[in-house]
């Protein structure tokens, strides 16, 4: 085992060419704009931020599904694009929001969970059957669902199947993109507790994307707050959630206190609209919505201020 973090991003950028309207000219949209991050083995790093801040785009780059436009991603100390594709899919697995769309409706649970083993040529048919039984047990599914199809299962059960499939080939890292937000509130906690115990039992590392700061509070060791493609604050979860330094983090936390938790999106506490990513504000990107904004914020992008184990990108971060 090396000393390098399991995952490290340096100045990672991703742009998309988009056209506004049928005849508009193509423009470049900066979905991820210079992200630097690292995730240590066994840690849970939560990625939070409003819709459109670039979380999924970053996750897709970490999975090797989308190449960065610039910057480097190191997996276990090695540039991601130099890691063999098969090795990468063995070691890094996704868990998506909607298990229904990621599970083949025509396959049985047994085949879905065994599929990665087949692809990677692991075990005999008999060994795979035993492994599937173990995996179903591990994720808390009864043996009777083995021959069921996804539509015969509940949402929570489907997400358990997706997790079992992700674990089939013993990955090191799970990239979970809103893994519980499509589920009933009552089921969400069960799935989060499952992820928590799997992490402890199997020594897994997670990148966890969530809108829900209660989820983040429950799961994360570190929290990275994204706004318009940039990490505006990052640090130990305890600190980011209890003593936030960036006004955006504070606004997110305040909006989370609104009475309707089913709303999902933080909104009421944040005044002003999320900016147009094709036309980002000059200076500090958060300035049009920031209660602390002054001239310098409108003029100059803030530098990163580190303090102990955390950092924030704000002219006024304490
Ligand atoms: N394939 C694509 N082509 C063009 N633009 C894209 C593409 N994928 C993402 N974007 C844009 O990049 C920005 C970031 O999107 P992304 O999906 O990463 O955000 P997100 O933080 O995951 O949002 P959400 O919370 O809604 O899932 C958005 O402005 C989005 O419209
Ligand atoms: Mg997303």
Entry keywords:
alpha/beta; binds magnesium ion; globular; 4-stranded antiparallel sheet; Rossmann fold; 24% strand; 11 helices; 8-stranded mixed sheet; binds adenosine-5'-triphosphate
Commentary on this structure:
The chain has 318 residues and is an alpha/beta fold. It has a single domain, classed as Rossmann fold (3-Layer(aba) Sandwich). An eight-stranded mixed beta sheet has the order 6-7-8-3-9-10-12-11, sandwiched between helices. Strands 2-1-4-5 form a four-stranded antiparallel beta sheet. The protein is globular, with a radius of gyration of 20 Å. The two termini are 37 Å apart. It binds adenosine-5'-triphosphate and magnesium ion.
Task: Let me know the largest β-sheet.
Answer: 8 strands, mixed
Strand content: 15-25%
List the strand order in the largest sheet: 6-7-8-3-9-10-12-11
What's the shape? globular
SS elements, strand count:
12
Mean pLDDT: 91
- Give the count of helical stretches: 11
Q: Write down the Rg.
A: 20 Å
Could you spell the SSE succession in H and E letters?
EEEHEEHEHHHHEHEHEEHHHEE
Under the CATH scheme, the architecture is 3-Layer(aba) Sandwich
CATH T-level topology = Rossmann fold
CATH superfamily heading: P-loop containing nucleotide triphosphate hydrolases
Task: Give the N-terminus to C-terminus distance in angstroms.
Answer: 37 Å
Q: Which class best fits the helix and strand makeup?
A: alpha/beta
Question: Considering DSSP H and I runs of 4 or more, what fraction of the residues is helical?
Answer: 25-40%
**pLDDT < 50 runs, ≥5 residues:** 258-268
Associated small molecules: adenosine-5'-triphosphate, magnesium ion
Q: State the name of the first-level CATH class.
A: Alpha Beta
């Amino acid at each position: 085992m090396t000393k390098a973090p399991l995952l490290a991003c340096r100045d990672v950028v991703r742009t998309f060419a988009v056209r506004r309207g049928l005849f508009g000219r193509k423009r470049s949209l900066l979905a991820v704009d210079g992200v630097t991050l690292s995730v240590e083995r066994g840690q849970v790093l939560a990625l939070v931020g409003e819709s459109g801040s670039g979380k999924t785009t970053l996750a897709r780059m970490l999975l090797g599904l989308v190449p960065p436009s610039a910057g480097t991603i190191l997996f276990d100390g090695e540039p991601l694009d130099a890691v063999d594709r098969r090795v990468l899919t063995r070691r890094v697995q996704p868990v998506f929001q909607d298990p229904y769309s990621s599970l083949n409706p025509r396959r049985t649970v047994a085949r879905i969970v065994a599929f990665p083993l087949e692809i990677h040529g692991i075990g005999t048919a008999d060994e795979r059957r035993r492994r599937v039984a173990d995996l179903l047990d591990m994720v808390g599914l009864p043996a009777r669902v083995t021959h069921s199809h996804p539509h015969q299962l509940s949402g929570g059960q489907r997400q358990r199947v997706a997790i079992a499939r992700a674990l089939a080939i013993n990955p090191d890292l799970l990239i979970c993109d809103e893994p519980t937000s499509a589920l009933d509130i009552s089921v969400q906690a069960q799935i989060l507790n499952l992820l928590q115990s799997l992490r402890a039992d199997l020594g897994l590392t997670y990148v966890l994307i969530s809108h829900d700061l209660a989820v983040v509070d429950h799961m994360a060791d570190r929290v990275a707050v994204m706004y318009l493609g940039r990490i505006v604050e990052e640090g130990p979860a305890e600190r980011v959630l209890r003593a936030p330094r960036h006004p955006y983090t504070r606004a997110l936390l305040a909006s989370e206190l609104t009475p309707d938790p089913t709303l999902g999106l933080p909104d009421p506490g944040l005044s002003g609209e999320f900016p147009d990513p094709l036309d980002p504000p000059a200076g500090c990107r958060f300035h049009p919505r920031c209660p602390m904004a002054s001239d310098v914020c409108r003029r100059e992008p803030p530098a990163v201020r580190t303090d102990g184990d955390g950092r924030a990108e704000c002219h006024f971060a304490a």
